[in-house]
Amino acid sequence: MKLISYILTPIFGLVFYLILLVFHPLQWIGYNIFGQNAHQKVVDVLNWFLVKSLLFLGVVVRFKNPYKIPENTTIVFVSNHQSMFDIPPIIWYLRKHVPKFVSKIELGKGIPSISFNLKYGGAALIDRKDRNQAIRELEKFAKRINENKWSAAIFPEGTRSRDGKPKNFAYGGLKTIFNHNPEAYVVPLTVNNSWKIFKYGKFPLGVFSPLTLEVHEPISLKETKLEEVLKITEERIKSKIIQS
To answer: Would you call 86 exposed, middle or buried from its count of C-beta atoms within 10 A (0-12, 13-18, 19+)?
Structure first.
């Protein structure tokens, strides 16, 4: 299997990077000429291509959602975090809700397409070494998604799980978002097998492990006590994580 990984990884890497290069100027055109909505459409299509690019690794992405997610309101998507490949499926499959991410500030420059979207698409870019900056940025982000009726996507583990086992959840960022979006709904998400793409490290990449994104029942912030929301959210996410 690892031999196949050595063969498929360069092919995937080339396709993945070409997608980012092609969509970088398309994002610039969308944002600067046609505006925010056009830029978002470009970002959605970009992430469709990124999801499909995983087929070059034999990785099929499966989306499970048996629930009706409320529309025309802010949703706070809360997910476990296993790799960078958690993000394209969230953006593509939940595009109707316009999810925006909380990311480390370093990703806001130097990466074709990805950095442009983070910088101009409405994400929060936080400096983990500067607590005051992080708090200010999260507050601006929370207000921004409320004003635009966008949604937030946040990984409360903070960093990626390298083996699929969930890390402790930190709730500071979530509480800031909740404070400015008291009418929002929280939708827990569980990602599985994303970490297996990096089970050998950055090279070669893992192959043939289906990646799944599972949606759990929405929780109304207005109708549920905060501590109960946090408890239920974490329990639902972790209950569906496959540790193998």
So the answer is: buried
